[in-house]
Amino acid sequence: MACVGGGSNAIGLFAPFLDDPVELVGVEPGGSGTKLGEHAATMSYGTAGTIHGFKCYLLQTEAGEPGPVHSIASGLDYPGVGPEHSHLKDTGRVHYTVASDNECLEAFYLLSRTEGIIPALESSHALAGAIRLAKQRDRGIILINLSGRGDKDLDYVTETFGYGDEYLKDWF
Ligand SMILES: Cc1ncc(COP(=O)(O)O)c(C=O)c1O
């Protein structure tokens, strides 16, 4: 399980496992809604296009220009995605899903407060995807790529959203 912005941390985790009998899941930034400009979920909502000279899934305007994007995680705010991910989506080898800004915050607070590990908001998307999957499964192991630490996000999160009681009310 790994978050997908441009796709580098996810492809780094997935590549050694592509031929192995494991599920691989990429979690895209679902932002605040499904309209263009409210998210940055390139493969979930995009269409084939060209950015930086390569073809991939792309969030684009009617004119074929890269479209506006939003995510609470600035590192995931990108309208394109690596071509290898686009291929892995088309072949079905990797499943791609989305986590919203709110799900990301819930995961951020949960790991911080239960384990003392502060994940980056980008990585919190992978955590949110894992939490959702874990609720659907009786057993198994989920390996989550914590692509970065959340110290950089702590001031923004606490000043904007507080310490998470509201987000964790279903947990404790
Ligand atoms: C901590 C962290 N994780 C993930 C990403 C997303 O990038 P990528 O999908 O290319 O790994 C970023 C981008 O800045 C990041 O800072």
What report would you give on this structure?
- The chain is an alpha/beta fold and 172 residues long.
- Helices cover 36% and strands 15% of the residues.
- The protein has helices at 8-14, 42-45, 83-91, 101-115, 121-136, 151-161; strands at residues 2-3, 25-31, 47-51, 54-58, 95-100.
- The chain has a 3-stranded parallel sheet. The chain has a two-stranded antiparallel ribbon with strand order 3-4.
- The longest helix is centred in the C-terminal third of the chain and has 16 residues, at 121-136.
- It is globular.
- The two termini are 25 Å apart.
- Pyridoxal-5'-phosphate (PLP) binds at residues 3-10, 75-76, 120, 122-123, 147-148.
- Residues 3-10, 75-76, 120, 122-123, 147-148 line the site of pyridoxal-5'-phosphate.
Order of SSEs? EHEHEEHEHHH
Q: How much is the average pLDDT?
A: 97
What is the CATH topology? Rossmann fold
**Spatial strand sequence of the major β-sheet:** 1-2-5
Q: Helicity level, as a percent range? A: 25-40%
What is the tally of beta strands? 5
Q: What are its keywords?
A:
two-stranded antiparallel ribbon; alpha/beta; globular; Rossmann fold; 6 helices; 172 residues
